[in-house]
Amino acid sequence: MGQVNIEASPLPPRETRRDDPLISLVIPCFAESDTVELFVSATYASLPGQRLEFVFVNDGSPDDTLAKLLALSIRDPHVVIVDLSRNFGKEVAMTAGIDVASGDVVVPMDADLQDPPEVILKFLKRWREGYDVVFGIRSDRHSDTRGKRVTAGLFYRFFNNLAQTQIPPNVGDFRLMDRVVVDAVKKLPERTRFMKGIFAWVGFPSVGVEYVRAERSAGTTKFSYWQLWNFALEGVVSFSTVPLRIWTYAGMSVALASVVFALVIVVRTLVFGRDVPGYASTMTAILFLGGIQLISLGVIGEYLSRLFLESKQRPLYLLRGIYREGKHDERAEKSQ
Ligand code: UDP
Ligand code: MG
């Protein structure tokens, strides 16, 4: 039984931010053996005097990323390695890192230094003002190709028109989240992890900070256009049911049009007599309706397949180990 404080006000005052928060950087790594060492040294240089925890998630890298990370962790006790059993993709890797991160604030970052570490100081400033989420807005996307900029712009427009959850354009995963937000994100158990959407869905007082996204420090991008297309599809289907509903309206419009067309035929036959029905118009109607039906089946299939994945209740990821100072951290492994 705790002490009863009779002076406690009914509304607890907003908790003041601590001066020296532990900052957990969550870094998903897939084949990043050229970048991880650079990442740590550049981050220390950009954030002097901050308390840092590096949570590297090895997302089934085929190269020697894990060996590089283990060597780093022997030298630096602030390095934690979450080693996944295989490649699960960036979104799931990020989730695994967020699950392990112990900081007062958590910042997901790319390993290639495209998210400049010094921007975190600006994030912290806004966080101290009371915002629970401070997200980075790319002020220009010069480091991206033209094609990627155009398709990204189209995606944000499409997504925000369809989904209830609004994601601000040109905002990636690079953001600072307070512990309360992290705990909220951890409560979302869904298997289709579209993190941008999940981060937006949880809400909390948020503010954006503009930054210039750097070029990749070393190595190459891991995403092709085909993967980005699938990722966009994943995002829309996870956060909107509008694509399912469209077909009700499409069906109603086609049915209405066909009634009108039938009337036209009846009137025309009565007025002008019977004529030979057109082969072309029949084919067009059949092909058009067949196409519409296949598309709608495909859309239903997208949702059904996700329902199927969710219903299997498989764990989101499997751990091979969590390492600190070059050794298994058994306590952390057991608590996962
Ligand atoms: N990544 C990952 N698993 C994957 C693909 C990528 O953990 O299956 C990581 C990658 O190591 C990097 C981040 O996700 O830290 C962003 O990847 P990348 O820089 O290739 O993407 P881009 O910046 O080109 O969009
Ligand atoms: Mg990158």
Automatic annotation (TrEMBL):
InterPro entries: Glyco_trans_2-like, Glycosyltransferase_2, Nucleotide-diphossugar_trans. It comes from the Bacteria. CDD domains: DPM1_like_bac. It is a multi-pass membrane protein. Residues 24-183 form the Glycosyltransferase 2-like domain. The chain crosses the membrane at residues 246-267, 279-304. It is found in: Membrane. The keyword Cytoplasm does not apply. It holds the Pfam family Glycos_transf_2. Keywords: Glycosyltransferase, Membrane, Transferase, Transmembrane, Transmembrane helix. PANTHER family: PROPHAGE BACTOPRENOL GLUCOSYL TRANSFERASE HOMOLOG, UNDECAPRENYL-PHOSPHATE 4-DEOXY-4-FORMAMIDO-L-ARABINOSE TRANSFERASE-RELATED. This is Glycosyltransferase family 2 protein. It comes from Ruegeria spongiae.
